[in-house]
Amino acid sequence: MVQLNRAIERAGFFDSERILCFYVNTTGRTQIIRVTLNAGFYWEKVEFPLQKIFFEASEAASLEVHVGRQGEKTLIDLIPCQQLRISQGSGVAS
Q1: At a CB cut-off of 8 Å and minimum separation 6, what does 47 contact?
Q2: CATH number of 2-84
Q3: N or C: more exposed end of the chain, with fewer CB within 10 A?
Q4: What pTM does this model have?
Q5: Strand partners, 56
Q6: Among residues 62, 88, 64, which one has the least CA distance to residue 75?
Q7: What residue segments make up the domains of the chain, in order of their start?
Q8: How far apart are CA 73 and CA 16, in angstroms?
Q9: Which InterPro entries does this one have (predicted)?
Q10: In this structure, are residues 54 and 20 in contact, taking their beta carbons and an 8 Å threshold?
Q11: How many CB atoms lie within 10 A of CB 90?
C-alpha cells in the first residue's frame, strides 16, 4: 500500500484531506475496483471474492466497482469514498 500511496501522491491525487477507507468484495465474482477523483487520474486493482482492502483516498473520490472478462468491464456500483471511510476504533477487522 505504501508504494501505491506514494505514486498517488506524486500524481496530485490528494487535493483535499485524505481519508482511510475499507472495502470488501462480498460477491462470488472477481471485481475490478477503481478509485477516481476526476477524469484525469485513477487507480485500479483486481479484488477477488471476499477479499478486503484498506486504502487512502481524497474525501471527494469515488470507488467504482466493475465486473467483466477479457477486456470488457461493466460498472455495477459507484460508492463515494466518504461512505467507505473508517475511523479509529471502528472495529473493522483486517
Answers
A1: 23, 25, 30, 31, 32, 33, 53
A2: 2.60.40
A3: C
A4: 0.75
A5: 20
A6: 64
A7: 2-84
A8: 29
A9: DUF1830
A10: yes
A11: 9
**Residue range 22-73, pLDDT digits in tens:** 999 999 999 999 999 876 678 899 999 999 999 999 889 999 999 987 778 8
Q: Are 33 and 66 in contact (CB under 8 A)?
A: yes
- DSSP lists the bridge partners of residue 89 as none
Q: What grid cell was written down for 28?
A: 462470488
pLDDT bracket for residue 94 (50, 70, 90): very low
- Whole-number Å distance between alpha carbons of 51 and 30: 9
What pairs with residue 85 in β-bridges? 21
Q: Which residue has the cell 486504502?
A: 55
Q: How far apart are CA 72 and CA 41, in angstroms?
A: 20
Tell me how far apart the alpha carbons of residues 91 and 21 are, in angstroms, rounded to a whole number.
Answer: 13
What are the grid coordinates assigned to 35, written together?
478509485
12 exposed, middle or buried (CB, 10 Å; 0-12, 13-18, 19+)?
Answer: exposed
Nearest to 1 by CA among 56, 38, 50, 46: 56
